[in-house]
Every structure is written in C-alpha cells, then in structure tokens.
Amino acid sequence: MPNMTFAEKILAKYGHQKTVEPNQIVTVQPDHLLSHDNTAAIIQKIQPELQKYGIHNPNLSIIVLDHVIPAASEKTATNHQKIREFVQTHNIKNFYDIGAGICHQIVVEKGHALPGMILLGSDSHTCSYGAIGAFSSGIDRTEAAALMLTGETWLKVPRSIKMTLTNSLQPGVTAKDVILHIIGDISASGATYCSVEFHGTTEHLTIDDRFTIANMGIEMGAKNTVFPVDKHTISYLKQRGIQQNQYTPINPDPDATYALTYDYDLSDIEPVVALPHSVDNVKPITEIEGLEINQCLIGTCTNGRLSDLQTTAKILKGKTVHPSTRLLVLPASRQIYLEAMNEGVLDILAKAGGVILPPGCGPCLGAHQGALAPGERCLSTANRNFKGRMGCKEAEIYLASPATVAATALTGKITDPRKEGN
C-alpha cells in the first residue's frame, strides 16, 4: 500500500477506496455543507427540486447570516427572509441568525468542524477548518445546491505540498506575518488546487494562529490547508465540550510523497504588509513605513478572535487613535464580543476611538459599515486586497497583522509594531 498524504488518506476513507492518487475523482458524502447569505441564491437554483424532493438531510447544512448584517437594504432583508423561511420549512438544525458571528468562526466555535471530518462550503475561506485537522474546502453555489439535494458530491484528489516550519516567532511578529510571507514567496497561485500540510515546530502556534494561516490558504490557491492535531487542538476542543473519543484525527504517512516541499524558519520572518492590489504583493514593513492610512480595520474571519483584540488593546490602552485615521473593530462572533467586553478589551478600544461593529463581514467585502472612498487607503487584517474589495475601485487596501494595524491606528501612518514594544 503506498504511503499517503493527509488529503489522500481522508479522501480515500470518504470515497471508500483503499488508496487514491492525485487527480483521481472520488465521490464523497461530507459531514457538513456551509452557506451564508448566499443561501438565498443557492436555493433559488433548485426551487422545483426542493418542492418535489426536499433536502437530503437537515443536519448537513450549516447556515450563518453574516455577510450583510443587519440588513442594509430591502433586497438584503428579503434574502434573509427567504433563508429564514427555508430553514423553518426544511427544519434545518444548524442555523445562526444575524449577530451570531462570521460563518467560519461559528463552524469551529460551535463544534461543527472536528479533526478527520470533511466540510465543504459555498465560501472560499472554508479552508479555515484545517486549523483543527479537518479537510475543508470551498465549492461554488451550483455544487452546493446539488449537495443540498443529494448529500454527495465529487472531488478531485489534490496534489500535496509539505511546508515545514522551524524555530519560533520573534516578538512583534505574528501568524499573519507568516502566511503573508509564505504567499509572497510562492505567489497567489503557488499552491493552486493543492493540499497544503504544515509540519515541524507547529506547537509554537496557537489554534488562533493556525486559524489565521489556514484561512488564507485559498490566497495561495490551495484546495485545503491543514495542521496536525496536537495538545493545542485537543485542549481547544475540550474547552468547547468535545472529548477525544468524539473524533478520529487523520495524519499523513511518514513517507508520503509530496509534489513540493518548502521550509520556513519562523525566527527569520519580520512584520510584512501586502500592498494593493494582490495578496502576494508583500513587502517588509521597513520598506513602506510612513505611508498615510485613512482607515484601519481589525477583525474579519482572519483576525477577529479574542487574542487579536487583546493584542490591539495592549497597544492602544490609554492612547487615542490618530485624528486622520478611523479604526473599525470587528469581533468574529458574539462569544468573542462578550468575552472581549467582559475583559474590558472593548472598553479600551472604544475609549481609544475605535468603532465597535457587530460580528459579521460587512467592511471586508465592501458591503456596508466601512466602505472606502476614492483615493482612500485602508490597512486591514482581512484576507483580500483586490481592487474594489472594500466597495471602491479607486481605493487601496493593505493587509497586515492586528499588531501592525493597531500601531498604525495611533500614528495615522504604517508603523512597525515592534516600535510599540510588542
């Protein structure tokens, strides 16, 4: 039996095959299907079939309203209404209405994603759940509609890339700097339709760190990204009431064959920024310090967790956001919002001049609550900086870590967070 990578082993298991190899097509029945506000468009594709056959399984779908919340227009409100009616009609078990949080945070936070599971979602950042050892990947709306009806779909077995991390990060350098550094190195297409496995000294990375890195796997073209299940994973899941006997991790074989291998020394990485209009347009922060910034955004499914807000509060405590800069703060879920409020983190951020937004996606995709004007620049902890991403094609989006964004909010110019003593 050939030694297999993570993706090959899990797709062989779900495809009821002894072995599989790259480019092979397998039919799988995933554990869950994620959708969000786009559920309205998905179900519109299959109205006759829904009326005649219904859905395959009410436990399959996870539906989270998060992209434009609260509704910003009559059209959005109508779509939300259609989704709520669909949920009630078909008795969807896992539905989260506005304010619960961003879909990718909710999936992990509520225990829907577990090690060794397959989850597919009608959102490209579904790859986030590899942070806890799941195979997770984005699919399009038509595929999601068919999966909703039948409970199964096909996947092509991806080639696998092995990324080995060594040593640990220096002060002021974060997981966001790591993933931006990697994308800048291999390019936005360097892992196209590949399964990216992280190996080496991953024990230095928290689950929050891994979530940030896995979330941006799609920004290098990856089909999925995955971290090994270790003590951090086990502890994280136990905190959510999930015991080890409730999941079965899948690990690559020691002698698995990889299409490509990369080695990164974490101690060599420094704070970086992705410049417009591509995520792989990455530069060391020392090369672009001093660039004026009009808006700072901390949050989204990439960096909206409690640790991110704590980092921000540590830098901003007792200080005030620069008068030429707006600071938007976006917790990734209601739970994180409440934890940050109970710890006094939101109080610090609000007193510093930050605008606390409801848990959701609005500014990240330019839907509302933070769209940019022509000529404006935003420094964001989000995952994309494409032209027009935040609502204006004449604006510029720069991507960086929460520490870099917080330091920048104080000066109104891109600032190295290491100068803030972090």
| CA-CA gap between termini | 49 Å
What is the highest CATH level, the class of the largest domain? Alpha Beta
Gyration radius over CA: 21 Å
- The total count of helices amounts to 15
Instruction: Give the CATH superfamily of the largest domain.
Output: Aconitase, domain 3
Helix content: 25-40%
- Which band does the percent of strand residues land in? 15-25%
Shape: globular
Uncertain stretches: none
> Could you report the average pLDDT, rounded to the nearest whole number?
95
In the CATH hierarchy, the third-tier topology of the largest domain is known as Aconitase, domain 3
CATH architecture identity of the largest domain:
2-Layer Sandwich
Q: Give the neighbour order of strands across the main sheet.
A: 4-3-2-5-6
State the secondary-structure class: alpha/beta
Let me know the largest β-sheet.
Answer: 5 strands, parallel
Number of strands: 18
User: Into how many domains do the coordinates divide?
Assistant: 2
